[in-house]
């Protein structure tokens, strides 16, 4: 009952209210982004993989230079950086593409606020597994073939703005451990677990622990 109906109802109500609450902060972040660097307010990122493998456009505030994701994959200047990106479980500890404002909003997860729009549209949930990039899932499963079962489990539910892995180490956790945590969440979706994650999330946001 909770997983099928109650969770979706809570997502709609909570995301609507939080969008209203965060609206003034969103204006401040948007202005800071425009003053700090050229480019749009929202990030131009590849689609993510959602529930049942369906792809969707995730809304995020731009924290990097314009066309950062495309440049990483196609610009020869970033060839070595892209190799480091793949070896580091699709995370970079020192990413030169991140702007000054971007560094701050990423540390405190402010770039994630627009994802409440994805929740309202039914593409995401407030709590759930990480929304992975298609090439990330493909390449990481080749690197970690034993994770395929975990990937299937993680994709059986909607990805979340926050989740069990985010409050368990965030970017400090590599893919094989991260997808195992996501799978564990998917196997045991419950109101108690979601409340635990929601309560712990603000602490992670304020401290910026594990953020890259």
Automatic annotation (TrEMBL):
Record's keyword terms, sorted:
Membrane, Transmembrane, Transmembrane helix
Pfam families the record matches = Bac_transf
Q: Which domain of life is it from?
A: Bacteria
State the InterPro entries in the record.
Answer: Bact_transf
Q: Where is each Bacterial sugar transferase domain found? A: 7-206
Offer an example of a GO molecular function term for this protein. phosphotransferase activity, for other substituted phosphate groups
Segments crossing the lipid bilayer: 12-33
| Family according to the record | Belongs to the bacterial sugar transferase family.
Name the PANTHER family for this protein: COLANIC BIOSYNTHESIS UDP-GLUCOSE LIPID CARRIER TRANSFERASE, SLL5057 PROTEIN
| The name this protein goes by in its record | Bacterial sugar transferase domain-containing protein
Recorded source organism is: Candidatus Roizmanbacteria bacterium CG_4_10_14_0_8_um_filter_39_9
């Amino acid at each position: 009952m909770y997983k099928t109906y109650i969770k979706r109802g809570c997502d709609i109500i909570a995301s609507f209210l939080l969008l209203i609450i965060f609206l003034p902060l969103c204006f401040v972040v948007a202005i800071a982004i425009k003053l700090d660097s050229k480019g749009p307010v929202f990030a131009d990122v590849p689609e993510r993989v959602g529930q049942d493998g369906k792809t969707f456009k995730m809304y995020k505030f731009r924290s990097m230079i314009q066309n950062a994701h495309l440049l990483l994959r196609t610009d020869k200047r970033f060839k070595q950086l892209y190799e480091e990106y793949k070896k580091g479980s699709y995370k970079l500890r020192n990413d030169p593409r991140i702007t000054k404002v971007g560094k701050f909003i990423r540390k405190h997860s402010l770039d994630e606020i627009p994802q409440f729009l994805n929740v309202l549209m039914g593409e995401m949930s407030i709590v759930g597994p990480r929304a992975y990039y298609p090439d990330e899932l493909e390449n990481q499963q080749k690197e970690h073939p034993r994770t395929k079962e975990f990937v299937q489990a993680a994709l059986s539910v909607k990805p979340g703005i926050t989740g069990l892995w985010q409050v368990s180490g965030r970017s400090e956790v590599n893919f094989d451990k991260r997808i195992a945590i996501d799978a564990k969440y998917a196997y045991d979706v419950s109101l108690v677990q979601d409340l635990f994650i929601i309560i712990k999330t603000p602490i992670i946001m304020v401290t910026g622990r594990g953020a890259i």
